[in-house]
Recover the amino acids of this structure.
């Protein structure tokens, strides 16, 4: 592993937060009290927090300065105007509706764009996205390329939509029965896998023939743009901004969680070109979020988001961000730890099936692996497998082919030395993987169970 391939941090650290160094006995007690669910741990008990990159970013000096000029007027905030202009400049859509975070945008889109009985094809599900789609009468259909479900395949752009699968769905169900195509850039549950510009263009061409709209889950679109620049022919000399603009030129709109690639702690938005959908979204945002000029966000948060979105387009920033994740992945790969390949843009995904071959999927191996990683090291991660997938309408567990633990790297928070410590902890646990025991539910909520479920050893 050549360290020269990994750029130094393109920033200086001005403020630090002291973290608690706990003992193994303290972590055993904390995990037991949390019901072996890393979401239920207290933050103060965590040493390195890789639960999520959502809202856990470190903001820049310019973003913090922007927070001080927050216009907290209930209507007509100048910060909304700044955010609105920034989003339109970078994404190119005609209309933007702010929301408190990404799932707020998912809620609005699902209500205004899905009729009961319609299908919503997409390149692999995401938990909250599928929930909103199904809650509004839609049926999610996975049309991602088959390679995305195989953790061992190291191929580029595993997030691509399989055009044959999409065409087959159109032929079988009819274009009128497809609400829209939901295209995620990047694909979280596939391991943070990007989508090629070629695929986006081809999806646009196919859907245009049938009058079907395409909405992106744009949460990590800047990371996706980096992969296009790095790996797709014809884009090496284009800026991240230019690539992002072309990406969105093939869509009718998008949902966005600003807590990721906008490098902030809260906020999101919904974009579209359709005038009627925009009017409907403005009506609903008042019901669920707030006025169309703040949508659940404070003025200061909108200002920080506008600044952060511009900062995310800087090549030095996104190169370091993606390659820091890659650094961790390569260290684990060299040690023989089974991970999802290739390494994605926001996280390294441990392949719990191969990590814990002594456990069946019904034993919740990824859930147990995440719990044991915290106990052994103080590193908090997240299950992304059968628990996250939930149950179908008949009450049966969805059993995804990928059973993973996500090591999610916050933006501008940790150093390469932190990644070394995480790698050492995972490698040591892998050497003693037989100690990882299966789990069962002690409490199972009906919806999005992975957030609040509690477990116990079988």
């Amino acid at each position: 592993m050549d360290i020269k391939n990994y750029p130094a941090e393109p920033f200086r650290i001005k403020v630090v937060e002291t973290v608690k160094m706990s003992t193994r006995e303290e972590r055993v007690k904390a995990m037991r009290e949390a019901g072996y669910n890393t979401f239920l741990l207290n933050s103060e008990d965590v040493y390195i927090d890789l639960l999520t990159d959502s809202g856990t970013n470190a903001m820049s000096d310019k973003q913090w300065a922007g927070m001080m000029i927050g216009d907290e007027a209930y209507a007509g905030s100048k910060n909304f105007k700044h955010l609105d202009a920034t989003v339109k400049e970078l994404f190119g859509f005609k209309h933007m509706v702010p929301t408190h975070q990404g799932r707020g945008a998912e809620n609005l889109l699902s209500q205004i764009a899905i009729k009961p009985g319609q299908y919503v094809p997409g390149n692999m599900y995401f938990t909250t996205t599928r929930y909103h789609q199904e809650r509004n009468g839609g049926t999610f259909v996975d049309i991602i390329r088959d390679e995305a479900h195989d953790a061992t395949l190291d191929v580029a752009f595993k997030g691509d939509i399989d055009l044959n699968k999409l065409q087959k769905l159109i032929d079988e169900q009819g274009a009128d029965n497809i609400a829209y195509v939901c295209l995620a850039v990047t694909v979280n549950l596939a391991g943070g896998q990007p989508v090629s510009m070629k695929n986006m263009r081809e999806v646009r061409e196919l859907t245009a023939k049938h009058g079907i709209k395409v909405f992106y889950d744009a949460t990590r679109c800047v990371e996706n743009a980096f992969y296009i620049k790095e790996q797709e022919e014809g884009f090496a000399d284009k800026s991240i901004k230019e690539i992002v603009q072309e990406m969105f030129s093939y869509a009718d709109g998008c949902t966005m969680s600003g807590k990721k690639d906008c490098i902030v702690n809260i906020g999101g938005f919904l974009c579209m070109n359709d005038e009627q959908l925009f009017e409907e979204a403005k009506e609903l945002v008042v019901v669920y979020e707030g006025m169309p000029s703040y949508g659940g966000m404070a003025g200061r948060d909108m200002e920080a988001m506008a600044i952060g979105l511009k900062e995310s387009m800087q090549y030095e920033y996104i190169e370091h961000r993606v390659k820091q994740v890659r650094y961790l992945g390569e260290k684990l790969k060299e040690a023989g730890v089974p991970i999802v390949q290739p390494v994605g843009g926001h996280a390294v995904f441990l392949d719990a099936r191969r990590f814990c071959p002594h456990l069946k999927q019904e034993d919740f191996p990824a859930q147990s692996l995440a719990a044991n990683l915290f106990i052994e090291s103080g590193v908090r991660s997240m299950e992304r497998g059968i628990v996250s997938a939930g149950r179908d309408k008949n009450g049966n567990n969805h059993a995804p082919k990928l059973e993973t633990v996500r090591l999610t790297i916050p933006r501008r928070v940790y150093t390469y030395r932190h990644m070394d410590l995480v790698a050492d902890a995972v490698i040591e646990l892998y050497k003693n993987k037989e100690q990882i025991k299966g789990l069962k539910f002690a409490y199972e909520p009906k919806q999005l169970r992975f957030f609040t479920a509690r477990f116990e050893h079988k």
Remarks:
- Residues 110 and 169 are 20 Å apart (CA to CA).
